[in-house]
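user: Kindly work through both lines:
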Amino acid sequence: MLWGAIALVVCALLAAKVWLYRWVKFKMDEGAITQFLHSDAAAAHGHSSDAIAAATHIAVARVRLVCQQSKIIGGAEPQWRRL
């Protein structure tokens, strides 16, 4: 009984650690992307995932994922912009 409870607590802590790591990584990437979008105010039409990836050194697939899931980045696949 005691070992089962310990195992359950360890699994819960591990799951919390993984969730927290992913959340922090998402927020860091989102911050880098929004900072880039904010700094380049001349491009009111937005930027492509490739341009954002090149400027922020984040993989293109990750840029797309972050932009799609973010609540502060708007637009669609061809052009992303800060809301």
